[in-house]
Design a protein that fits this description.
406 residues; alpha+beta; three-stranded antiparallel beta sheet
């Protein structure tokens, strides 16, 4: 089958097909790929998408930079100057490889206890413009955990421990929850948007945000310090006077048309092609995934509405959040765990991610392989993890290889 065909073409080629269950996938190498579109666009749509691509990839600059009105307003506090600095050509971010300062795209969100004013806003920003005090940096240290499968084969996991600089931690209430989150991929957004919501939200590692527009406005404000029509304020905290008083690059800093272009670009970004296993292994791997209970959450089919000719998508998620147990849960500054629910991570695009860089999985990139990601599953996913552990070594290898091929 021609993987480059968008779905209207696909369906035209297969008249009488009862269900339109083929999620459009393309050979996708990155957001700059000129062929990579989820759907054919008309000339206007194409121009908007191209403008969005350029904005997604452009480093924004400080307010008042000559000749840069469209892209000025960076900061006063921020984590990165462009979307792409974290979102890696549309793919998931590069995660933490070793102990030390966090990679740029591993963001610390601050869960401030009810009733107190957040001193640094919603996100701990690792960069600030000259003259604006830095909020602080975080670092991590991995502790190794090891164990054995019932058949005796050993495994090892990396448990991250997060630390904030002492002067930063001192200014935060002890009950502030540290939420490390890595930048997820941003392809297939139009497809996830087409899933009718049964929960408060669908985007982000916790499915907390309902719409792409909202998620994008949060990214501009919290990660880049750029205001837009939905988020007219930067992420300055209550006590950050110089952050509040810094000159801005317009009100809002991002023009409405440009905001819409960035949405159009993300909606047009297609899902990378799978890398199916050879011969019978593909069907056997899928059967094992289902038999092990993985598909209870990583659902094969999800109904969509509002897209002509498409009834369901295969994103390998239920787009709902689940409690995967205490080891994955966030902690507060005093080290106490906070029950945390995570969205079933869509598994689509793993094959392409793996071809690009070594996989670093889960909400903070702690899992250095599919095997490690599975072994972190606990809580609601404990039965599935245990079923995986009880498989023969050959079956585990097949299941992991199949997941890596999505
Ligand atoms: C400093 C790194 C960083 C930058 C810069 C950044 N993001 Fe993100 N992005 C993240 C993180 C971290 C998350 C996960 C947030 C969460 O789980 O709450 C995320 C989540 C998202 C999601 C949700 C995807 C999904 O499947 O749920 C979208 C869409 C997104 N970002 C778009 C953007 C856009 C557009 C920009 C530029 C305006 C941008 N991001 C800039 C780090 C970044
Ligand atoms: C109870 C629901 C549930 C079940 C059952 C479940 N998962 Fe997950 N899975 C999740 C959630 C939630 C996450 C995200 C957790 C996080 O980021 O901390 C996840 C994350 C993953 C990831 C990492 C994806 C990424 O993008 O980082 C992989 C791989 C994965 N699961 C594979 C499996 C496999 C294989 C099975 C069966 C052995 C399985 N899961 C069973 C809910 C589930």
């Amino acid at each position: 089958m021609n993987r480059r065909a968008a779905w209207p073409l696909l369906l035209a080629a297969l008249p009488g097909l009862a269900v339109a269950t083929v999620t459009p996938r393309v050979a996708f190498t990155g957001s700059g790929d000129p062929q990579a579109l989820l759907q054919p666009l008309d000339a206007d749509g194409r121009r908007r998408q191209q403008r969005g691509l350029a904005l997604f990839n452009t480093d924004h600059v400080v307010a008042g930079t000559a000749g840069a009105a469209a892209i000025d307003g960076l900061g006063p506090v921020y984590n990165a100057a462009s979307c792409d600095a974290c979102h890696n050509s549309g793919h998931r971010a590069r995660g933490p490889i070793a102990d030390g300062p966090l990679p740029l795209a591993l963001v610390i969100q601050l869960g401030v206890p009810a009733g107190s004013t957040p001193p640094f806003g919603a996100v701990l920003n690792a960069q600030a413009l000259p003259g604006v005090p830095l909020e602080g940096r975080a670092s991590l240290r991995f502790q190794l955990r090891s164990g054995r499968y019932p058949d005796g084969q050993p495994w090892q996991l990396r448990q991250p421990r997060y630390r904030l600089a002492a002067e930063t931690a001192r200014r935060l209430p002890k009950r502030t929850v540290i939420r490390p989150r890595i930048a997820p991929p941003v392809f297939g957004m139009a497809l996830l948007e087409a899933v009718p919501l049964t929960a408060p939200g669908r985007f982000g590692w916790q499915a907390a945000v309902p719409t792409l527009a909202e998620q994008t406005a949060i990214a501009y404000a919290h990660e880049m310090g750029i205001t837009s029509r939905l988020r007219p304020a930067d992420d300055c905290g209550a006590a950050e006077r110089r952050c509040r008083d810094a000159p801005n690059g317009g009100e809002p800093e991002l023009a409405d048309a440009d905001f819409d272009a960035v949405l159009a670009f993300q909606r047009a970004l297609p899902v990378p092609a799978e890398a199916p296993l050879a011969g019978d292994a593909e069907a056997a791997g899928r059967a094992l995934f289902i038999a092990t209970g993985c598909s209870g959450c990583h659902r094969e089919q999800l109904a969509v509405t509002g897209i002509d000719g498409l009834d369901t998508i295969t994103a390998w998620t239920d787009l709902r959040s689940h409690d995967l147990g205490p080891a994955l849960a966030d902690r507060d500054l005093a080290g106490r765990r906070q029950p945390t629910r995570f969205r079933t991570a869509p598994l689509w695009g793993l094959a392409a991610a793996r071809a690009k860089a070594p996989l670093l999985l889960l909400h903070d990139g702690r899992a250095a392989s599919v095997e490690e990601a599975i072994l972190w599953h606990d809580g609601e996913a404990r039965p599935a993890r245990q079923a995986f552990e009880r498989q023969t070594a050959a079956a585990r290898t097949l299941l992991m290889a199949w997941v890596e091929g999505r």
